Amino acid sequence: MRRVNVKAVAKGIACGLAVLLAGYSILLLWVLYGAREVYYLTFYIKLLFFTALAVAGLVGGMTAGWQGWRHGGWIGMTVSLATVFFWGLLIPEQVYSLTSVIGKLAYGAFLGGAAAVCGVNLAFVQRRRRFNKRIKKNSIY
After folding, report:
1. Which of 8, 43, 56, 81 maximizes the CB count within 10 A of its CB?
2. What digits encode the pLDDT tens for the residues 42-56?
3. Sign of the alpha-carbon torsion through 8, 73, 122, 24
């Protein structure tokens, strides 16, 4: 059994957290400079979370090149745990139950794993295209 590629996991986590940070910054600017009095941002926050998990898993899978489900699972759980800690620090009165944290970790692992499998396949397709292009270039026909 091969080990988990720590570099791929770290790169995926970094990309996921960067997407979250950029998205939260855009939402913050929207609230600060928007003209409305009340904002319902739960849909956008969930969409941003899912997008960050998908990007993180995709990047991690492309970097790993094998067993994307395992790398994506670790990436998804870590990004999910980071968001739970972030929201816990931001809103200390909000109490997370153990089942909600486990649920967030589970769908983070699932979505990260699925995206990482797609990333592994995307990396394989890119390598194959480069190889076919090189073969075509060197062929006599």
Report:
1. 56
2. 899 999 999 999 999
3. negative
